[in-house]
Every structure is written in structure tokens, then in C-alpha cells.
Design a protein that fits this description.
alpha/beta; rod-shaped
Length: 415
């Protein structure tokens, strides 16, 4: 049996399809790897977090290795980390996107017991601050309190590492977790923001959120920590910590990560209740200093009604109005065509009257009248008062036939 053209095309495509299948079968799926910057004073086990993420998703999880003098946002910008926890008081940085709010970071201030201010009117003059966890909120807080004491940058010092015998203040933004106080050092005591070294204590009780967006007053209850200084309640401030990533991290990877964090909340809470117990998907993205990553947004909006569902009533109204407009247009078109038909009927009658005249006028007059009728009809056609349809063709046929009949009668009469 000879091959048809269709059979030849199919036989030509089969080797190509088999080659594609073989290539796909030979390729292994490359799971995305996400590197996360873990806080210096670890409040969770990276290995436990890695186990949960890799068991429940296609993501490979790794801890990012970042020098201490590099901030989390800088690590993201330098592509040395894909994920980091930062405070929601951090200023917006181009190319950084939010994934989820995770927990509340509370300011812990520890003061060296031997510290003596050089100037009681400005007790922070010459102070040395250790800001733990490369915290942007910690830096912002130190900047705020020193500015309120009218200190210039050179009149105090900040460092991302603790220096024994040098550090005067430990500034630690982290969860309230009595089981992990690795940030604390011997010879230091926790202090409240309403202590005697702070001449602006009322500011932190009532006005902090106006000057430092997203920071709010907070109290650490008495005896929360078995540490010096916590025999009384401590006035402090708090800010939400959010998980952030780079804008160019794939949508599918962040979708899976968001899904894993929310669906595996019980397991995550079991390994670090102080971090993950507050995770939920009912937060307001507008309260974040960074826009949501498209992968996180896709997961959070997965059950939201689509465009058609959201605007069903409006669409129904528009469809109804469209049908009304179409019906009105069609009715107008029919009315207009009917008017044109009425006009062509007038021309029919005028031609028939000339054809059926009794007694007939001279042929020359009748032919002249027919020419005038023809000219009027074509002028009406040009001005769209008539349509060039079957009715107009019948009119031209009738006009031609009537002319022939008048000319034939004229010749018979002459003969």
C-alpha cells in the first residue's frame, strides 16, 4: 500500500519524539537549593529545620556561610544567601522580597555591671555597644537613643562581635526564650528602658512607634529569665521578624517553602516554639516593609476567588447591558432597512405608473421621467437612503424593462 503524505509526516516525527523522551528520561530533576543565614545566637537547630524542609518539599536546604561584618540584607544582595530573618523595621532594599512574618523579636539590653557613665547628663557618651545577630533593629535602636542624647557617631561605638572587657552594652533583638541565653555574658545585668541611665524613659513607654516604625513597647515579665536584672519587669521594645528572600529566587521554590512552613507548623513549633508558634497565613502584607515574593503570594492566594468569581455580578450586568445594546442595534438596523424598503417601493410605484399610463404620453416624455426617477434612485443610494440589495436590483430590472417596452411601442406606432 503506498504511503500517504500524512503517514510520511507521522513516520518522520516518531524518531524526534523518541529522542525527546530519551533525553527527558535521562535528565534528573535539579532540586533548588536555598541557603539561609542563621542568627549567630542560634534559636533553632539548622539540622532539624533542614530535615523538615527536605522531607516535605523538593528544596535542598543549606546554611549560608556569611562573615560577621556582613548584614543579612547585604548577604542577599551579594548572593551569598537566599533566605534571611530580618526585622520588619528594616528599610526597603531593592530586589528583596518578603516570604512570611515568623516571630516577634524583643529587645534585650544587658549592661556591664562595672559601667560608669563619663557624663551623667549623657550617660551613653563613650559607650561601646555589641549588637548581636547583625540586627538592623539593634543598630537603629542605638542610633535612636544616642541621637536623643545628642551624641555624634564618633562619641560611641558599635560592633557586631562581643569584646570581653570592652563591651558596655549588649543589644540583642530576639525571641523571649529562657532556654537560650547564649547572647548574655557574665558580669552583665538586664536593664529596663525606664532605668536611671535613660533620661527619656517615657518616650519608650508611649512614643517609640511614632519615631521607629513597626517598633512597639513591650514588657518582659519579672523572673522570665534566671538572669541578673530580671527580678522586676523590664520595659523594652519589640518588632516582628520576617523571612525574606531575593526577588530573583524562583517562584516555585518560594511557593514550596511557604507551603512547607505553614503546613508543617506543628513540627516546626515542636523544635522551636518561641519562633514558629505564631506563624499563620492571615497576616496583612501591607504591614510589611517589603513586598511579598510572587511565590509566597501565589500560595497565600491559592484559594482566593478568581477574577471571574470576584466580579461575577459586574460581568453579568455588563453581559446584560451588552445584549440590550446589541438588541437595540439590531432593532434599529431592521427599522432602517424597512425605511429603505419603503423608499424603494415608492420608486417601484412611480415606474409602474409611467409604464401603465392610459392614454400614454409621448415616449420621449415618459423616457425622460424614467431617467429622472433613475437619477433620484441612484442619488438616494449614494446618500445611503437606499440599500444596494435585491430590492434595488429588481428596481433597475423594472426600469430597464419599462424603457424597452416604451421604445418598442414607439417603433410600432412609427411603423
Amino acid at each position: 500500500m503506498p504511503y500517504t503524505t500524512g503517514m510520511k509526516i507521522k513516520l518522520t516525527l516518531i524518531p524526534g519524539l523518541l529522542l525527546c523522551v530519551a533525553l527527558l528520561a535521562g535528565c534528573e530533576y535539579a532540586a533548588p537549593t536555598l541557603r539561609m543565614l542563621i542568627d549567630d545566637h542560634r534559636q533553632l537547630s539548622p539540622e532539624a529545620l533542614q530535615t523538615i524542609i527536605e522531607e516535605q518539599s523538593n528544596i535542598r536546604f543549606r546554611e549560608a556561610q556569611v562573615p560577621l561584618d556582613v548584614s543579612p540584607l547585604q548577604a542577599l544582595a551579594d548572593d551569598t544567601a537566599d533566605l534571611a530573618l530580618i526585622e520588619n523595621s528594616s528599610a526597603f532594599v531593592e530586589g528583596v522580597r518578603a516570604v512570611l512574618p515568623v516571630y516577634e523579636r524583643v529587645l534585650h539590653i544587658a549592661l556591664r555591671d562595672a559601667y560608669q557613665p563619663a557624663d551623667p547628663g549623657r550617660p551613653l557618651l563613650g559607650a561601646d555597644f555589641y549588637i548581636a545577630n547583625r540586627s538592623a533593629a539593634g543598630n537603629a535602636f542605638v542610633d535612636l537613643v544616642t541621637r536623643r542624647q545628642e551624641l555624634d557617631i564618633g562619641q560611641y561605638r558599635t560592633t557586631p562581635v562581643y569584646e570581653d572587657g570592652v563591651t558596655d552594652f549588649i543589644i540583642y533583638f530576639g525571641p523571649i526564650n529562657p532556654d537560650n541565653t547564649s547572647w548574655m555574658q557574665p558580669g552583665y545585668s538586664l536593664v529596663s528602658l525606664d532605668n536611671d541611665l535613660n533620661p527619656h524613659r517615657k518616650f519608650y513607654e508611649e512614643s517609640i512607634s511614632y519615631t521607629a516604625p513597626n517598633m512597639k513597647p513591650k514588657t518582659i515579665p519579672a523572673l522570665t529569665y534566671d538572669l541578673p536584672g530580671n527580678s522586676e519587669a523590664l520595659l523594652t521594645v519589640a518588632v516582628d521578624a520576617i523571612l525574606v528572600t531575593r526577588k530573583d529566587v524562583s517562584e516555585s521554590a518560594i511557593y514550596e517553602l511557604t507551603k512547607t512552613f505553614l503546613e508543617q507548623k506543628p513540627r516546626l513549633t515542636a523544635i522551636a516554639p518561641h519562633l514558629f508558634s505564631g506563624i499563620n497565613e492571615s497576616f496583612d502584607p501591607l504591614t510589611l516593609n517589603f513586598p511579598l515574593h510572587r511565590g509566597a503570594r501565589a500560595y497565600l492566594e491559592r484559594d482566593d476567588p478568581g477574577f471571574i468569581e470576584r466580579y461575577a455580578e459586574t460581568i453579568n450586568m455588563l453581559v446584560y447591558l451588552s445584549f440590550l445594546m446589541i438588541s437595540a442595534f439590531l432593532a434599529f438596523a431592521r427599522w432602517r432597512e424597512h425605511r429603505k424598503k419603503d423608499r424603494i417601493d415608492v420608486f417601484y410605484n412611480r415606474v409602474l405608473l409611467i409604464r401603465d399610463e392610459q392614454p400614454p404620453r409621448p415616449a420621449a416624455q415618459r423616457l425622460a421621467d424614467l431617467q429622472r426617477i433613475e437619477r433620484e434612485a441612484f442619488n438616494s443610494l449614494i446618500s445611503e437612503k437606499l440599500s444596494a440589495n435585491e430590492s434595488f436590483r429588481i428596481f433597475t430590472d423594472l426600469l430597464g424593462t419599462t424603457r424597452e417596452e416604451i421604445r418598442d411601442c414607439k417603433q410600432e406606432t412609427s411603423a
